[in-house]
Structures are given as structure tokens and as C-alpha cells.
Amino acid sequence: MRHLVFPGKAPRVQGFWLRAGRPLATALLSLLVASNAFDTAAARQYRRHYYREQAERHSEPKTEFKKPVGPVFAVVSLADQHVTFYDANGLYARGLVSTGVPGFDTPTGIFTILEKDRYHHSNIYSGAPMPWMQRLAWTGMALHEGAVHPGHTASHGCIRMQAAFAKELFGVTSIGQRVVIAPTDLTPADIVHAHLPVPKLQMPPAEAGQEKPSAAKGGKLEPVALETNSAAQSKPVNPAEFAKAMKVAAAVKATAAAAGKQAALALLGSKPMELRLAAREVDIAEDALRRARAELEDATRGAGKAEGEEAQKKAAERKSAAEARVAAAEAKAREAGEAKAAKDRELAAAQAAVRDADAAAAQAAAEAKQAVRRMEPVSILIARKTGRLYVRQATERVFDVPVTIRDPEKPLGTHLFIATQATGDGASLRWVSLTPPAAAEVHLRHRSSRRGHPVHAEETSEPAPSFPETASGALDRVEIPAEAAQRLSELVWTGATLIVSDVAMTDGKFPMDFQIMQQTVIREWD
Description:
The protein has helices spanning about 10-60, 165-170, 240-305, 310-375, 470-475, 480-490; strands spanning about 75, 80-85, 90-100, 110, 115-120, 130-135, 140-145, 160, 180, 190, 210-215, 220-225, 380-385, 390-395, 395-400, 405, 415-425, 430-435, 440-445, 480, 495-500, 515, 520-525. The chain is of the alpha+beta class.
């Protein structure tokens, strides 16, 4: 570096730069090293997180899903971070989940699948993709595909499932099916109780076995036989088959109403012209009558003025002829008036036929809607707080009545009963019960990228408090009125659910089913 040294002040300039440059270079070098170190650490952490997620995704167990038997319902265990689906045969499928992190806890309770969307995007979290979404609450909680960290919470309240599991379950669940979210795992238990609804076998509507007219061919309607089981029409059927028969009967009535309206409109179309012609005949007859009466008056005046026998005779003959013409004109006017009145009645009858056909069509549409509703599982809630029984089907209110609850000041707890399958000849149902524990505080292991601690409930934590009544004990205390029990027996079938709870329901602005929401608090610990 000696060739850079110049005489005079150059050494001092060189010394200045050496003295000033060393700290600056050192600072810049330190900043660069720290930045590289930070970037390297962040990159390493991101790569660990990414590869772990990919490993978890690709190591997801492949489960063969068969068609479920009967209704499907699920139990989500927050402590175990898994979801278990059941059908009429028992355990159907089980998969890992990640639920809400502390501060965004997944609420516990009894929920219903309200909506399904294959390609859903969040309207809360900047359009985040939530494939295979099955909504449980309109406030923003759902089952959906997402990053699952085995044994760890990870979501903002939703229940994330692994990709293949979420996809397969999406194809076997239905809107209206139940999902129980509990602090700990629950297993459904068979229950037999006299207060559980029993299905009633009913005779199907007579119209379900009749023929219905097809579309007009060649100017007339031709009857076509319905595709119904004629043998089934002669014996009572269960509520599900009765609902199907109701739908067929409503279709028969709707087709008959449409054919009746078509005929009434065709008849009505010709009546206005006929009525106008009849009115014209009345006008002509009345005009002729006026002329005949005027002639009679003139002949009468002439007869009064006639002098002489011959003149009087001619005047009398003229008057007699005028009277005859008046009588004929009156008769013709009377006939024309009667004909017009008949046409008026025919027009009114045709208009009434159209109105009757419209009313019959509306009635058939209402019966068809009711039949479609009755084909869905019935949902029943008994609330101790209000002392009433509420019934819904397909999120539609059916009826509600007061019930008698023994010791109404004593809590019942919350209990879910599900009719899983019919037994015998369909005159009874197999019920299972689930009694989730009350809201509790669940302590889970803290999530750490360096320590793969599994999630489990803290051994020293207090267990979730149990409800004061067993499922059978809660049913023992409820007395349903005979008329309400009769109406329930006409609706209840497999997939029906009954909730007995202390709380009352409030209706929101969205379609929903009976739900019982609690709040279990998640606490993570090391």
C-alpha cells in the first residue's frame, strides 16, 4: 500500500480514513453478519415448519371409507385433538384435528352441520382457503381441511382436519347431522326409555296409488300410472315411507290441478265472446220491444180517435196486432235476458274453476313442501328454562308445546339422543345417548418446534364437572303431553335427535337447528 502514500498531508489523510473507516466497516460487517444470521435462522425455522407439515401431510394414514349405515354423527375431543365419526354400526372413522389456540378457543357443546362448501374461503381471515368446509356455527366455526399439527391446537376456533380425511368425510355427511365438541372424548351408549319417541305406522294417502294425467296429447289428457308400490298402499308405512307417499300424492294433486286449470282456462276463453253476443241479443230484443210498445201506444191513440164503424174496426185490428207484437217482443227480450244471465253464470263458474284450480295447486305445493320437510330427520329440544318442547324439521319450525318437568328448579344437564336405526318391523327405533361434560378448562402441552411433546390433559387438572342427571334420569323427569307425543310419533324416524338441556334457544337471522353452545377454555403449559 506504500504506492498510495503521498508527501505533505497525504499521510494524515490516509490516517484519518484509517481511523474513521475501521469503526464504520466493523459496524457494517457486524450488521451484515447479524442480518445473515437472522435470515439463516428464520429460513431454518421456516424450512423445519414447512417440511414438518409436508411430512405430516404425506404421512397421513390412508383410510378406506365405506358407505355409512344410517345417520352419521361426530365427537370432537379437545383433550385428545381428534374427531370420531359414528354410524349405526358404531365407530365409523377417526382422524386427527387441530382446534382453537388459547384466546381463540373452540367452544364445546352440541352443534349441527348447517352448510357445506367444497371451495369455501373465509370471510373473516382475508379469504383464507378452507376446503371441504362443513359449517357448525354462523359465527365462524366449521370443520374443514387445514394444517394439522398432531397433538397441538393451531386454529382460530375452527376444527382443522387432514386433507384426505376431510375430503372423504365431506362425501358421507349431510346437513342437519350432529357434531358434539367436548373437553374429553365421549362414547355413545345405547339407551331404551319409555319417554323416547316411538314411530307410528300410518296408511299412505289414497292419491299415492292413483293415476295422474300426463301432458295433453292429440287434444286430450291421457292417464299414466305412477311408479308406486301398489302392495305398499294397502298397509301402514313408517314415517319415512309416509313422507314419500305424501310427495307422490302431492304430485298427483298438482298435476290434476294443472289439468283442471287448463280446462277451466280453455272454457273461460270462450265465455267473454259468448257473453258479448248474448248482451247484443238482449239489446236487439229490448230495442224491438220499445218499438212494439211505441206502435201499441200509437194504435191505442188511433183507436180512441177513430169515428165510424169501419175506422174503429181497423183501429181495433191495428191495436190488436200491436199488442201481439209487444207480447212477442217481451217474450224475446225475456229469453235474451235469461240467455245472458246463463252466460253470466257460466263465466262466473269458469272463473271460480280457475280460482279453485289455483287453490288446489297451492294446496298441492304446500303438501309437497311438507312432504319434503317430513323426509328430513326431526329435531327436538326440551328446555328446562322455558319448560317447553320445540320441534324443527329441515330448520323449519313445526310446533312447540309446554311440558311437565319434575323438580323444575333442579338442573337436568345437557343430553343428546340420536335414533340410529329402525328395529323389528319399523315400529321402534334404536337410540344412543351422549352426555357431554359441562364447560371446563383443558390444559394442553405448549406447542414447540424444538420439543415434540404430545398434547394431553394435565394430570393435576380438575376433571370437567359432570351433569347432575344421567341421560335416563333426565328423561325420567320429563312428561310430554299425549297429543304432542302423538304428533312426534308421526314424524320421528332414523336420524331424529332429541336434546334435553337446561338452557333455552334463541333464533338468529340465519336458518339453523337446535344447538347448545358452552365455552371450554384452553390453557397450554410446558
